[in-house]
What does this fold into?
Amino acid sequence: MRIVVLMKPVPDTTGQERLLPDGRVDRAASAAVVNANDEYAIEAALKLTEAAGGEVTLLAMAPANAPETMRKALAMGATRGVLVTDPALEGSCTLSTTRVLAAALRGLEYDLILAGADTSDGGGGIVAAGIATLLGLPYLSYAAKVEPADGRVRVHRISPTGYDILDAPLPALVVATQALGEPRYPSLKGIMAARSREIATRSLSDLGLDGSQVGGAVATTRLTGSRAPAAREATVVVREAPAEAARWVVDFLAARRII
Amino acid sequence: MDFALTSEQELLRSTVRTFAEREIAPRIGAYIETDAFPEPIVRGLADLGVFGLPFRAADGGSDGGMVAFAIALEEIACVDVSVAAIVFAHSSPATILAAYGSDEQRRRWLVPLAEGSLIGAIGLTEPSGGSDAAAVRTTARAEPADDGGSWVLNGGKTFITNTGTPLPGIAVIVARVPSGGLAAFVVPDGTPGYRVGRPLHKIGWRAATTCEVFLDDCRVPAGHLVGREGDGLRQALTAITFGRVCVGAIATGLARGAWEQAVAYGRARRTFGRPVTDRQSIAFGLAELATRIDAGRLLTWRAAALADRGAPFRAEASMAKLFATRTAVDAAETAIQVHGAYGVSREYPVAKMLGDAKVLQIIEGTSEIQLLLLARLLGISDGDE
It folds into this structure.
């Protein structure tokens, strides 16, 4: 089974995020990490290939320093990385990103594409659906279980009342959720060996695209403003014994009509 | 001169830190309270690959070297020193096998040690002598036979960390051979005549299991002798010198953990209307400590980097150990003081740190031994005897 996982380097939310004057996140100001939802997709891909054989390719569209982030995912056990990077991609909107990743996928061989539900920076959550549309692939979202077999894939999709059981022919695109299981730690052996794993870079021209089709200049969405969230109010710490503490919490919530 | 870590070392550091915060911090308290070996945590560390970090890939390790190992030990010790102590104690016999073991010995014992499926201990210290490594009284005599023969060990060791754990283990036992020199022998659990006594109860390293071991006509095949007869002292000193770098890293981690707890608590704790960290007596003390923690880390990393390059690092290892462990004791004491009465409450993680820090000033050569060694190595004196 050949699996491509879409992964995005995002600013580390445990650090100090900073906004640029134009409202975008200053990516140089904080360390990049693998988008947390993508880690569930990577974990699911690794489990599937460990069980049935195959290989996992990571695909990202990101600035040129992204290999450092990609190496963490490689250290978890992925086979190789493909990084689409080009100065002309700066300021790309969701539609540009979708087109670029779809073009990159046309150059890769795969049976299954896995993606995280959304990213912790942009948070649009529609790139994966757009890619499936452009490539004409079945799109199976919010997967709590992924079972490929005999050229088809069966997915338990989380629904408001339980699960929808979806079935589609491969190749297909599946959106992973955390119900697929906690991502593993990258092994220290894997970290030390990750340098030897291949990360291929692709420019726009490699993909047969040019700067007039994608990037900030042709963005279909515009950022009109952004602001840091309001500082959290002072935290109340309840130090009573459990029974008393529970009573206190119930009273606190009831007074605010939350329960 | 470049003080920056490589991207692998940065990723290693963040991975071990995350593991320590998620897997060790919430669970270790119960083991410490009962002086119990944290088996699930140790198995997790094995899966993560911590035990093999400094060793060659061909020996089941990951070619990380001592700098990487120091980084990992600091991150673990920042959360809990007992766990770091288990990893460190395990590395001593592995270091001896890596440096002096035959191909067969490395395949048989070092690979599982590096993978963490076997737990390792070093049996050097005896009841009658700790820092004086040459004063070993345990004996080994050869019994030749057609099948290669065997060695028979008699004596006892004490303060042997990583014996008496629920995991399968080996101890590398240092004993005196008839020629008068020392030799190191691999003694696996279950060897007839090898008995592990009761766990010792300590004020620090409480979740690391430390026992006495007894050797009564303990017989091991000739192939269990590591290297040559008479090389035992040199082998033990190699492990101890590497061990001093490990202790420097653990002490740095402990001090950093204490410092972080002190700053977090001190900023939130208000007295007379202001955070206690606004008081100059506390703020300056913590600023001074931060400086010493960084200095200890740099000394440790220098020694580790020299070791990785194959350069001499004995004096540098002693300096790192001496300085970082003193910092650790002071940091633990400061952290407790900043916490006031909560600092001596066992509910707070700083309470355990003072005992953990004191152990670091004693093992792998006391602070006094480091000074003695440095006086000799730096050409100050020929010793005080």
